[in-house]
Amino acid sequence: MLVLAECKQKSEEYEKEILDWKKQASQATTSITKHNRQIHSKETQIEQLMSQKQDITDKCELEHITLPVLSEDDSDGPQFDFSELDRAYLQERRPSARDKMDAEFRQKIESKTSEIERTAPNMRALDQYEAIQEKEKQVSQEFEAARKEEKQVADAYNIVKQKRYELFMEAFNHISSNIDKIYKQLTKSNTHPLGGTAYLNLENEDDPFLHGIKYTTMPPTKRFRDMEQLSGGEKTVAALALLFSIHSFRPSPFFILDEVDAALDNLNVAKVAQFIRSKSCQAARDNQDAEDGNGFQSIVISLKDSFYDKAEAVIGVFRDVERSCSRTMTFDLRDYQE
């Protein structure tokens, strides 16, 4: 889970970095496009002014007006000095209008030229854009690697999760199918040969690990009640039924039961003792695979003679007054069994 969380965090960081680089690349592209558009506009205006200048020159040629040329080598065409024109032409034209037009044209040309120079594109912008694209490619590759790693971790986790579910359900189904049978053996009697009823229910069958398991028992002649409302003896019998059901799924070599009969009356003590004896006898231990088998050895601590008189051997603990210590004695009951 920790590795999966780290991969997800790394993936989110890569996604955020990719978005940042894409945003910067978009801004650079927009800036380049804007500058190219401005350059094109200014070049168009210059071409219009040059066209107007050419029209004036052509008109002068048609009217056989010689324009004094200052320079022929200018990249924008020949430059004229209108002050050298014949006086007659100067009188025909209004000098103020001519000078104003010429000054206006020159001013516009200089202004547009200066503006073009100021708005010239940053030639490093393309290099920066390529660097951003390369960085985006690198981050995308790292993101893809992190995504693949996340998928591998998620697949491995799902395999473990499914295996856990299968093992749990295997155990639950076995225990659930055996608990009623064992509970009936612990509660049946001559007056109630069918015994009681016990069953297990999952609160969430789809994902049983997120919720609990409901254990319900109904002793003979008793109506349905929650486990909390049962008496101490009834709870003990229910707990023993669950214990022996779990044992039937994964048998253990032996049990140690410490005063499990403390809350039981004499009738239920006899039932539990008889059940344990039936599972502890040599025949049950030898025939593990038989129905109702699952035999086991058991060590039971009890203070009730109606319980331990069903044992094969008794170990007694008593106080030695003379030596001020505890002592034990053993007694084999197999020679005295009915």
From TrEMBL:
Domain RecF/RecN/SMC N-terminal: from-to ranges: 22-319
GO cellular component, one term: cohesin complex
Alphabetically ordered keywords of this record: Cell cycle, Cell division, Coiled coil, Mitosis, Nucleus
Domain of life where this protein originates: Eukaryota
GO molecular function: DNA binding
Record's keyword annotation contains Cell cycle: yes
A single GO BP: sister chromatid cohesion
Record lineage: Eukaryota, Viridiplantae, Streptophyta, Embryophyta, Tracheophyta
Any matching Pfam family: SMC_N
Listed name of the protein: RecF/RecN/SMC N-terminal domain-containing protein
Compartments (UniProt record): Nucleus
Major location (coarse): nucleus
